[in-house]
Amino acid sequence: MADARPFHWEYQPPAVPRERYLVTGGQPLEGTIKVSGAKNAALKMLAAATLTGERCRITNVPEIEDVRAMTETLRDLGVVVDHPEPNCYEVSAGDVDWLFVPLEAAAKMRASFMLLGPLLARFGEVVISNPGGDRIGRRPVDLHVDAMRALGAQIDYRYGYYYAKAPGRLRGTEVRFPFVSVMGTENALLAAPLAEGHTVIRPAAQEPEVDDLISFLQKMGAAVERTYPDTIEVDGKRRLRGAEHKVMPDRIEAGTFAIAAGVTGGRVVLEDAACDTMAALVEVLGRAGLAVSCQKDRMEVDARAVGPRNLTPVDVETAAYPGLATDIQPPTTVLLTQARGVSRVHETIFEDRLEWTAELAKMGARIELKGPQRAVIHGPAELQAAELDISDLRAGASLILAALAADGTSSILGAHHVRRGYENIERKFLDLGARIERVQEGELVSPA
Ligand code: EPZ
Q: Which of 115, 144, 182 for mutating ligand 1's site (highest number of atoms within 8 Å of CB)?
């Protein structure tokens, strides 16, 4: 099945406001921030709530654009989504009457594809847009579709949409992935709890967010267990019940702010950071010369002793969990520009996740790309402020880090990318003493 990008002659993505960050760097960040709930856990729990008609209450949900897009998509399906207080969403998928997830949803957010598994399992059919690729790679969904077919679904692909049906119930089976896929695992994980019989998913992604999703499903009454590090087993049930769950802290956000301490020679305390989910990054930060200390739900990163542009070079390679997360690779690449010597980055997960470093080069970073997945970083670079363009969520956060390390004021266009996945990022940086504001077409829109 050619997994071509969706072909939609009529769809024009909505214009996004031309928002930019103005960041004046050159001083160490110091202070304490609270880490928000994990984007890549919360989005899947909102989808998982459609597995029951009973009310689910999900707390510690980050107030970010992707969550808003997911709740909008759910409401368009007829799901009741209440937002009784900040960071809390209550979902009741009692009578979903419109089993259609349009390109508009998929174009905003790839995670809309997480609705394939639960809607197929609960309602037996769904028409859902191919989310297509984005700036970090082609990002096909063939593994998701193969998993649904293995569970007994019939899926046709026409004009950018998957037409999926599961007459009767999905049937439990062994879902074998050729390699680890986080959302591939999670789509199978959300289809199996209502399938008939036993399902084995392997190799299953081991990311902590997957275990957080398993914990939520167990509270909903699903018979789901991680029986081996890379295997998840499910015994199907006829129905699940409503449940309440608090989303785990966002380890990528925590890592981003930990690196902010490193690139500015400051000291940052991260409340709610779960060090045990960040071991690979903590190891890299230590090798680079940062002092990292972990207590329960608290991480302190101190770069004052080593000072800016005096870090130790480190060679890093991304990998599926428990390896170094691909999502923290862009911030780590910025950190390594401040090391005294040569560092190497090998991005093994996505084929285009180093392209954005051309923006770093505008600031004076010396990065040699050896193909699309390998970079050689010559440091330390005395970064200079520049006019920069954000291409995706993690690259955007990374350019803010670089601007904080640079002398002068950088203007970074594309703030909307960053607001997809980081809650109150300006407010958090301001609380650490950073000089940052968000401007929309010339008008200041930063938090008060
Ligand atoms: C999830 O994406 C995350 N997104 C990504 O975070 C994260 O980078 C990625 O996992 C890896 O950890 C969410 O959870 C919403 P994959 P996902 O399937 O599941 C290929 C962020 O910034 N692949 O594990 O889409 C794929 O192209 C985002 O928060 C197929 O070939 O990633 C990639 O090369 C960015 N066919 C590799 O597998 C498929 O059907 C691993 O991707 C699916 C994936």
A: 182
